[in-house]
Design a protein that fits this description.
321 residues, 13 strands, 8-stranded mixed β-sheet, DtdA, Rossmann fold, Deacylase_DtdA_archaea, D-aminoacyl-tRNA deacylase, alpha/beta, 3-stranded parallel β-sheet, Aminopeptidase
Length: 321
């Protein structure tokens, strides 16, 4: 199983963990590729780019075409930016699984690697690696200073392989923190089973017995979905925050009147691509939609529930997952 780990020299929260990872045993120089240096360690390829990661569309395909090696999964090392300036380690799947969001008006130019109506397959390691990262952070005395959390699905680059971002947030001081860089490097080292270790989070293939959380609703840090994911054995698909589900109230003057899902306008139905991408990435499990019930108004919740039933997407409570 070939893994691409991708870093960029223009981001201190990316190149720092990459350098710490390369200081660990077993690395050898790989081929120079599109003016970037690569490194090899067992079935892992680490690439150092000089560009913004969100601009590296189809990186997996380009690597395959240049080297003949088929890519199974991709991890991007990156900084996380937040207006709150929170100290955090974050993990998230990628994609723009809607036509427009409130910050993307019709006719506006998309930024940050965004593409409408698209979602990459989420890397199956997201849930297990989140739990591993919490253990690493605690054992290196980085918790509770650094919060370890999920983020909702967002931004690019456009890619077809199962993908995740592992990030350090959220100011220059913490992007350059050596201890934080070491924690992310250990996450990759231990998570991929380099050295003499056992890989963490290989894709489940057990005839549907694994339950996979498809998060729907909530804020960008998806706290109610996070509470479920922290349980051992939970696998994670896409995480759709409320802002990625634009919905238009069909009867704004009568909010308590029941409405049919088909009457609710907006681009929220495009979120079905997140279910399809999750199913593609984790073929050995059963995908269950987990709703952040309190984040929706009743008409929104009813519309989403009705749509999920129409699409034969099962809804699960925390105890089901």
């Amino acid at each position: 199983m070939l893994t691409l780990v991708v870093a960029t020299t223009v981001d201190p929260a990316s190149i720092g963990p990459a350098s710490a990872l390369l200081a660990m045993p077993g690395w050898q120089l790989g081929p120079s590729w599109q003016d970037a240096q690569s490194y090899v360690n067992e079935e892992v390829r680490l690439i150092k780019l000089d560009n913004r990661l969100v601009k590296e569309d189809h990186l997996d395909k380009r690597w395959e075409e240049a080297t003949g090696e088929s890519v199974d999964e991709v991890m991007f090392l990156s900084k996380q930016v937040a207006s709150s300036k929170r100290r955090a380690f974050t993990i998230h799947p990628i994609g723009m699984n809607k036509i427009r969001t409130p910050h993307i008006g019709e006719g506006e130019v998309l930024v940050a690697g965004e593409k409408v109506g698209w979602a990459a397959p989420p890397n199956p390691r997201i849930g297990p690696w989140l739990r591993l990262l919490r253990t690493i952070s605690a054992s290196h005395n980085l918790s509770p200073e650094f919060e370890v959390t999920l983020e909702a699905t967002y931004h690019g680059p456009v890619i077809n392989s199962p993908t995740m971002f592992a990030e350090i947030g959220s100011t220059e001081e913490y992007w350059r923190r050596q201890g934080a860089a070491q924690a992310i490097a250990l996450l990759v080292w231990q998570g991929l089973g380099l050295g003499d270790g056992i890989a963490v989070g290989d894709c489940p293939r057990n005839n549907g017995r694994s339950k996979i959380l498809l998060g729907i609703g909530g804020g960008h840090y998806v706290p109610r979905h996070l509470d479920v994911v922290l349980k051992d054995g939970v696998w994670v698909g896409h995480l759709l925050s409320g802002y990625s589900l634009p919905m238009e109230d069909p009867i704004p003057s009568q909010p308590k009147v029941p409405v049919n899902a088909n009457a609710v306008g907006g681009t929220w139905r495009e979120s079905k691509v997140a279910f399809e991408a999750t199913k593609l990435a984790l073929p050995g499990g059963e995908v269950l939609a987990h709703l952040d019930q309190k984040s929706f108004k009743s008409w929104q919740r009813n519309a989403i529930t009705g749509f999920l039933v129409e699409q034969n997407i099962k809804i699960g409570k925390p105890s089901d997952i």
